[in-house]
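Sanity check record (used in CI):
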Amino acid sequence: MDWDDMRVFLAVARAESLGRAGQALKMDPATVGRRIARLEARLARRLFHRSHQGYALTEDGLRLLPHVEAAQAHLRAAEEPGAPGEGLSGQIRLGAPDGCANYLLPQVIAQICAQHPALEVQIVALPRLFNLSRREADMAISVSAPQAGRLHAQKITDYHLHFAAATAYLNRHPPIRQLADLRRHRLVGYIPDMIFDRELDYLASLSLPGAQMTSNSVPVQVNLLRQGAGLGVVHDFALPHAPDLRRVLVPAFSLTRAFHLVRHADDLRNARLRRFADALVSGIRAQVAHLEESVVQVERQASSENP
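Expected output for LysR family transcriptional regulator:
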């Protein structure tokens, strides 16, 4: 089979649209359609169902897809540098939830790229799950490990979250000593119907009113808190970036979550992506540990100064 035709097949299978596939391939949609029709004629099989909603794989298309993806993985592996000590190069797209993308990845990716000047990293920061089967990204960081699909998940590290508020806000209100005290305060959190992972529903287990100020973005929530809007659940690793916020109800309320690195199963043999993943995992682990420890150190210093 012609690999160029297989490349077109993969693009349409992942995009489910001639237009989106054409954009990825830098081809006219009509040309993409003709290439698919030619491939189907050559194989004497119908690979896609056509409808107003787009292109969906038929049973024959679904059977062909993993073989073509495996062939693509082998081709990518063959293009990798042979010597393990050679620097990383080329483009890698990394998907991540926006909290991780804003407060962890800039430091980690900057360090990796400093060590590999020919490497180009694209960070896609979106508050949703990424579809690696459609190649929205080469790999993605998630809070929950995927339970379906041809995906491989590697736990990166645990991280912790606590209630926090601006120091100015806390100074204007009575002390918060127990969870029940939160009923007298405004809460900041996620928009309920836009919580894309149940692990992010931090307030679900608490008998508290819903948050009055909400956003699907972690940095927006942090900035609301910095403006004295109320209290909210914040990643400990974000607090060094917002020194005007202070944790409360420690240790009465503490959450532990984990980041996972998710990759397509066919990419596990790709030496370049494997080396990048190793550097990414070790970098995130070190950064989370460093930032969380700095929060504890600041609190210890404040406690010693104000016994």
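The chain has three domains: 3-78, 90-157+258-293, 159-254. If this sentence no longer matches the regenerated tokens, the check is flagged for review.
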